[in-house]
Amino acid sequence: MPAPREDAEDRAKTLGDAAGIIFKLMCDRATSEQWAEWLRAPLEHAAGTANQDLVEKLLKAGADGSAGWRGCDDKTLLHAAAEGGNEEVVTALVRAGAGEDMEAKVLGIVGGTPLHVAVATGKDAAARVLMLAGADVNAADRNGDTPLHLAIGKDHARLAKDLLLGGANPKARGFARDCPIHVAARVGRHDVVHALAHKGADLDALDDEGMTPISLAVEGDHVSTVKVLLAAGADAKRQTDLSKTALHVAVKCNKSGAIPALIEAGADIEARMSLGRSPLWYAAWKGSCAAMLVLLQLGADANSHDEIGWTCLHAASQKGHADAADLLLRWGADEMAVDNEGVTTPSALIGDPRHGSRVHGATDRAPEPTCQDGAGEGRGRVGWPTRPGGGGGGGGGEPRRARRR
């Protein structure tokens, strides 16, 4: 880290005219070893500011450009050059002997090699020179991340592809046991996902939190990335922690964009996570109405239940999600369905009135059957989508109405 401006001014003020005297004294009296070492500090800072002309002059004047220097923030000369990003400076220092520090690690934030520094700061040209000079493309920084992890995480897609061409391991585990493809899926870089898949990345690998790449892409609503993963062979049915599928992850975050693609690729719309909860049930529990609507439109069972017999409507009602309850009723949810203990949704609300006032409003408006088979006018509210194929003329028909037992 450069000295604060006030410190630099204080130094100059304190030395005054003596600065020139000191320089002349060093020129006249220093041994060659002292002189070479004395010039290493300015060499570091010239490299760190990509001042190629000054670097060349310092080296020509006898500055020691070999390995072993530790300067600001524990940087070697090569770390400084990587940070500066001038490929000619990197090349000059490698030729001067600094290349022996190619695998040295700093103690700073990155805690990695010069290649980590170049990649993290987006210095493409410097990174390529380091790779050509023999930098280990699979070295881990203090967090366990490789340069490939950093390139993807910092959104340096071109660098990531260069690293893959240079032999970076597409299956390397980094921080939180992330593979590079986890990072790419999380940030929605479908082009990098494609490159990783081409290099043999594990499309269904689990990270420390039990998440697959496709689940991370779904969580971020990166639909194009989800489609690339599916096209490359990712398993749409793969279960994560607590037996969640990508559909469960989508509804948890109320991200509906990828749901059709997942189902088209074979995801089970009625898949059960822990406690027997379907994606629609979980969406109702979370109050994720946008995701619920897409699931219902694609055929999800509005009356699916969990292991204790709670239906989607029980779930929405118990959590006080009146809009979710209303949507379920419009799509045929049975407000009088009982759980394993024989409790209906209205009965449960009487016993637990915390959310009753809002949800009772939805269940109280449920339609009464008007003929033997239960057909009848839907409740209809302007702006609510309806189930296709029903009656009612015009745009797409009415949703199935709830039946009373």
Question: What does this 3D model show about the protein?
Answer:
The protein is an all-alpha fold. The chain has a domain at 276-405: Ankyrin repeat-containing domain (Serine Threonine Protein Phosphatase 5, Tetratricopeptide repeat, Alpha Horseshoe). Helix content is 48%, strand content 0%. The protein has 23 helices and no strands. Helix 12 (180-187) packs antiparallel against helix 13 and helix 20 runs antiparallel to helix 21. It is elongated and about 100 Å long. Residues 368-405 have low confidence and may be disordered. ANK repeats lie at residues 73-105, 110-142, 143-175, 176-208, 209-241, 242-274, 275-307, 308-340. InterPro entries: Ankyrin_rpt (IPR002110), Ankyrin_rpt-contain_sf (IPR036770).
